[in-house]
Each structure stands twice: as structure tokens, then as C-alpha cells.
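Exercise 3.2. Students should predict the tertiary structure of the chain below and write it as C-alpha cells, then compare their answer with the key that follows.

Predict this chain's 3D structure.
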Amino acid sequence: MAESTQFNFARMRLILWIIVIIVGVVVSVVYMTRPPAPRIGHPFTLSSTQGGTFTDADLKGTPTLMYFGYTFCPDVCPTTLAALTGWRTQLGLGPDQLRIVMVTVDPERDTLDSLRTYLTGFGSPIIGLRGTDSETEQAKKVFGVYSEKVNDAGASDYLVNHTASVFVMDRDGNFASTIDYNEPADTAKGKIERVVSGS
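Answer key:
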């Protein structure tokens, strides 16, 4: 009986250790795959579809939803931008109360003209930003964004894998939160309402 009890205790301890290890691995994976908070204060300069340049200083003044994508994106980018403009409309907000900004991670193909044309298709003003390769890399670095060209065997041209999160910036130009791809609409709109209200 004592041996059986010891065996069960040892087995239970082993199971608990396995659970601890699994939880540790899951937490590590979640932590490593979440985009880091933007390094606000680090400068970046990009050309704007509205004319002139857009810099880190321009983040101040109006709450902003900052998204990195590209016009050739087949699904994630148009889905995300449609959701953002839809939420802004549903919340009764105008572009002067909540900016939506898209930075292209594909400056090789996305010109300012093509960006402007693409973004007008969402029926609500979106600011498009484009930089040189080095300017784009600097902006990505500030926001902790990842992107990489990939060749799909079934595609006629390359695709770009990239961070799909939206960066929610407050009116002081500070990072407030992220909206993850496929995040529930109510949760996302709650984050937007908080940053617009300043709470």
C-alpha cells in the first residue's frame, strides 16, 4: 500500500512538472510572437499620399490606427482596412477624430499613386505612407514590425509576409494597445473608444 501511494505521488509530481513545462512553453511562444510596443521617440520619416512627409511628430494631435501592409496583399490587408473604416463609421467618428494610416511594406511595387488609388477603394479616408527601403526599415524598426518577401509557387508574383496587428496610438502619439488580426469586433471597438475618449 505504501509503495502504491509513493508510486501515485511520484506519478502526480511528474504530471505536474509536465504541465508546468507546457504552460511555460505556451507563455514563451505567445510572448515571442506578440509585436513589441513601438519605441516612441525614435524618429521616422515617410512620404504621405496627402502630400509632404509624415514623421513620428505627426502622430501627435489625433488618435491613430497604424497598420503596415501592402496593396498586392490578397486577403489580410483589405480585410483589416475594411474593418478599421467600418468600426470608425460604426462609432460615429470622423477622420479628424480617428486617423487610419497604412504604411506599405512593399515600396518596390507600391508607389504613392498606387497607394492613393488603392486606399480610396475603402470609402473612408486612409492616409498612405511610403518610404525608401531604408526609411521603410526604420519605420518597421520603430514599431517592431516584421516583413519578408516570399515566393508562392502558385502565384505570378511575390507575396509579403508581415505583422498583421494594428497599432493603436493615443492623441499624444503614445502607444496605447494593439488590435490583433481576427480580434473580436467588440473588443477592438472598445480599445478605439478608450483611446478616443482619452481614458
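Discussion points: The longest helix spans residues 2-33. The beta strands are 45-48, 53-55, 64-69, 99-104, 127-130, 147-150, 159-162, 166-169, 175-179.
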